[in-house]
Write a structure and sequence with these properties.
- The structure is a single chain.
- This protein has one domain.
- The chain has 4 helices and no strands.
- The longest helix has 35 residues.
């Protein structure tokens, strides 16, 4: 008996899926960039005493803002999570 043929469109849809995934990654990176910039601008408005009370130096603000937006890349976060002996 003759089997009916089934059409699959997965190969044609695959490039579109990759494009959508790439656009999603670009959008996520843009949101993180905006978050880092917003954090930096907020922290830069603080005076020296407040920054010192928080344990920050003005020279660290860009790094702190970037760590807040990209915690998986953060050396500071890895250091804080490291076991202490």
């Amino acid at each position: 008996m003759h089997q009916p043929t089934t059409l699959t469109f997965a190969p044609a849809a695959d490039p579109w899926r990759r494009l959508v995934d790439k656009l999603g990654a670009i959008a996520a990176a843009w949101r993180r960039h905006r978050q880092a910039r917003s954090t930096y601008l907020s922290l830069s408005e603080l005076d020296e005493r407040t920054l010192r009370d928080l344990g920050f130096r003005r020279s660290e603000l860009a790094s702190i803002a970037q760590d807040a937006a990209w915690p998986h890349r953060s050396e500071r976060a890895r250091w804080l999570q490291a076991p202490r002996f």
